[in-house]
Amino acid sequence: MPLVLAIETSCDETSIAVVEDRKILSNVVLSQIEIHQKFGGVVPEIAARQHLRNLPIIYNQAIKESSIHVSEVDAIAVTIGPGLIGALLVGLSFAKGIAVSLRKPLVGVNHLLGHVCAANLFFDRLSPPYIALLVSGGHTELLLFDKSTTQPKILGKTLDDAAGEAFDKVARLLNLGYPGGPAIEKISKNGDPRRYNFPRAILERENFDFSFSGLKTSVLYLLQKEKNVAPWDIAASFQETVVDILVQKATNALEKTGLRKLVVSGGVASNARLREKLNQRAAEMGFELYIPPKIFCTDNAAMIAQAAIEMIKEGVSFPLSVTADPALSF
Ligand code: KG4
Ligand code: ZN
After folding, report:
1. Hey, what domains does the chain have and what are their CATH numbers?
2. Do 94 and 7 touch, CB atoms closer than 8 A?
3. pTM (2 d.p.)
C-alpha cells in the first residue's frame, strides 16, 4: 500500500496531506480566501508568498496529525499544474527539497487528475470504465476513463469560461464578492430559479463541449436593462441554468458511451443544487454516481496524494527534474 505525502499549492489553498491508499492520515488545508477577498479575486504574487509562509507550518502539522515518521513515506507527490506558475513553483521547490533530503521518489501530479481522484479516495468500488465531469474554477471537462484511472480521453471541454469562473463572474456582477460559487448558492435559496430564462448553449446530444460566457453576458444585459431586479432571482436562475447544462451534458455522455458510472468533482461539485439534480437523475436513469464529500471537491492535498497513488499503481513515475506547467492538460 503506497504511503504518500502530498503538497498542493496551485491556487489559493495551501495544503499538505498524508494518505495510505484511500486512508487519509492527515489533510491540512489552509485557505487564503480572506486575504484575496478584498481584491475581488486571487492575486498570484500574494498567493505565492502566502504558500511560502504557510508550507513549513502545515508540513509539521500534517506529519504530526498523521502519526507517521516522515521517513516511512514511499513517495512525495506535488501538483505540477495547471495553476498559477508562482504558486506551483513554491510547492514544487518545497516538494523537491523533501524528496532529495529523504531520498524518496517525487511524483508530479496533474491537478485535474487530483480532482477526479478525490472520488477514488472515498469509493473503493470505483473502477474504470467511467465518465468524469470535472467542474472547477479554471476547468470544465468531460473525461472518459476507459481502462486507466490516470489517463483519460477528453470528450469535451469549455470553449470559453469554466463553470466556476462563470459563478465567480456573475457573483461579481451581483456584488456578492469572492469566491462566487458559495455566495450564489447561498442567496439562491431565497430566489426563484424559473424567474429568468437564460440561454443554455450547445446542448446538442453529440457535442460535449461547454460554453458559459454567453450566459454571463445575458446576466450583464439583464442588469443593464432592468433597474429593480432581485439579485436572488438572478442568482437562482443562473445557478439552475448552469446545473441543467452540466447534468444534461454528463448524462448525454453516459448515453453516448453506454457507461453507467459518473464521477463529478472540482469546486463546483460542492454546489448543493448540482448534487441534488445529479442524484435525481441517477435515480431516474439508474446510473452509479460518485461525488466526493463537499470539502474534498475544492482544492486539497489528499486528492493529490490519491492521484499519485493511482499513478504509482499504474507504473507512472516522474524524474526529479520535473517542472511546473501552468497550462498542463491531459
Ligand atoms: O476546484 P477549486 O477549489 O479550484 C480550482 O481548481 O479552480 O474550484 C474553485 C471554484 C471557484 O470558481 C468557486 O466559485 C467554485 O469552485 N465553487 C462553487 C461552490 N464552491 C466553490 N461553485 C458553485 N457552488 C459552490 N458551492
Ligand atoms: Zn482545483
Report:
1. 3-116+297-313 (3.30.420.40), 125-291 (3.30.420.40)
2. yes
3. 0.96
